[in-house]
Design goal:
Length: 481
């Protein structure tokens, strides 16, 4: 018998019972209702107060004569429990008031000179009012790169905002603090140049800059998802095209307005850009030596009024240097950068000529070399003061490589030639030493030819060999037809 026949026989009208499907009795339906239902209002009120199911169960038993089980209350409370959604304050901003910035990941890009792809860093700056964004990808980020990206963003928008909200990443914030965060000095100088105030978000509080967070997510999911680029310039060109054609022309979800239209309204409220761009620099700490100078790239620069022995901040620009107080950031001196190593940028009126302990130590070493070395060192100190001690150190340190009598003689020749220079003394010393070594070496003897040796055959043997070879040659020629 087939399966179909079994099914059809089992479901014949004669075998189907009446009143199918059966209806449950009223008492059975009543038993399926929870015993907690009559106390719904009380349970709901207690749950809204934050009380747990056990506390509600105990009150039901004590105050309402509840005779059900705890698990019944637990299941009923799970159905009624209200989960309050996380609430956020929606901030509103005036046009041109705030810009939010952050880093994300760009699309895979081929590393120059290889077949490997890597994700660069994606910088996004978003105007809070209009949601217009500036996007750039870079391979590496540092303090200066971070500041340069901000400058590029403001020039892209045609003006700067009054505030910039950023994360507490090291490129922008050296030391996070709720009240006085310590900014990267290059970034702080860039903000001051464009008259912008930084407002770092609180640690672990990314919602303060939710606009740029959404912009990064939108960029990664819509513009860059599934794409690869051969160069980083190609990716930047694509991002600018995508922002202009698609992101700026979209209707913003919460504002119900076009982003580009809001940006045109905001553009006139941006702060005007300065006439010149930011001059970027690197900042280092230097010690003021006893000649009142700091050493930078093997050159000396006057640091007064900074006291001797103090530590100052030096900002190195492309064509100038600035010396500032380390604590107050007050500008102390400005100098043009020296083009040649060894240059001394110190006015004669500021030179110090009284000998220090270091000066006396150097002169004692010169005295040990010889009277002429001592005389030259004293003369150099009288001419240049403490700032000339570097030359004195060079002269006395020649004693580590050359004998004292040659150094002393070189100093005498330098004074006779009126060339008071360490390099000149060194050149004379090296020449004197070379001449002395050449005089000690004996003259080489001319080479002589050896006539008698076990490997040299007699002339008679060579003659017999040549005669034998000639005879064989004549025999071979006679046999030829």
């Amino acid at each position: 018998m087939k399966t179909g026949e079994i099914w059809s026989r089992a479901n014949t009208p004669e075998q189907i019972p009446p009143h199918w499907p059966p209806t449950l009795p009223v008492s059975t339906v009543a038993l399926s209702t929870s015993k907690c239902e009559p106390h719904r209002a009380f349970i709901d009120a207690q749950l809204r107060l934050g009380r747990n199911a056990m506390a509600v169960y105990q009150d039901l038993v004590d105050r309402h004569g509840f005779d059900g089980a705890y698990n019944s209350v637990k299941r009923f409370a799970a159905q009624l429990r209200h989960k309050q959604p996380e609430q956020f304050d929606r901030l509103s901003f005036q046009p041109g008031e705030e810009m939010q910035v952050d880093f994300g990941e760009g699309a895979p890009t081929r590393v120059l000179g290889s077949e490997r792809y890597r994700k660069p860093r994606l910088f996004v700056a978003t105007l809070r009012y209009s949601r217009r964004s500036f996007r750039r990808v870079v391979w590496k980020s540092g303090q200066q790169v971070w500041a340069e990206l901000h400058e590029q963003a403001w020039r892209y928008f045609g003006g700067s905002t009054r505030y910039v909200v950023l994360d507490n990443l090291k490129e922008g914030v050296l030391k996070p603090d709720l009240y006085e965060p310590e900014l990267n000095p290059v970034f702080a100088a860039t903000l001051a140049h464009y008259e912008v105030v930084a407002d770092p978000a609180r640690v672990r509080d990314p919602n303060r800059k939710g606009t740029v967070e959404n912009a990064i997510g939108h960029t990664q999911a819509t513009a860059l998802k599934g794409r690869r680029f051969e160069t980083i310039e190609e990716q930047n060109t694509f991002l600018e095209h995508w922002e202009t054609k698609w992101a700026a022309s979209r209707i913003h979800g919460s504002e119900r307005r076009q982003v580009q239209a809001m940006f045109e309204q905001e553009r006139v409220h941006l702060q005007p850009l300065p006439l010149t761009g930011m001059q970027f620099f690197t900042e280092e700490q230097r010690t003021v030596y006893d000649d009142s100078c700091v050493r930078i790239d093997h050159s000396s620069y006057a640091a007064r009024p900074a006291p001797i022995g103090s530590i100052v901040l030096v900002r190195l620009f492309e064509h100038r240097i600035e010396i500032r107080d380390r604590r107050s950031q007050q500008l102390l001196r400005v100098h043009a950068r020296a083009e040649r190593p060894g240059t001394v940028v110190l006015p004669m009126a500021e030179r110090i000529f009284n000998p220090s302990r270091e000066t006396r130590f150097i002169l004692n070493q010169a005295r040990a070399i010889g009277s002429q070395a001592q005389r030259l060192c004293e003369m150099l100190f009288a001419i240049e003061g403490r700032v000339g001690q570097r030359k004195l150190w060079g002269i006395v340190n020649l004693a580590k490589r050359y004998p004292n009598q040659f150094i002393d003689a070189a100093c005498a020749q330098a004074m006779e030639q009126s060339v008071h220079s360490y390099r000149h003394v060194k050149a004379i010393t090296e020449r004197l030493v070379a001449n002395a070594l050449a005089a000690l070496e004996p003259a080489p003897e001319p080479p002589t030819l050896t006539q008698q040796h076990a490997l040299i055959r007699s002339a008679q043997e060579y003659g017999d060999l040549f005669a034998h070879a000639a005879a064989q040659d004549d025999t071979l020629q006679g046999q030829q037809p």
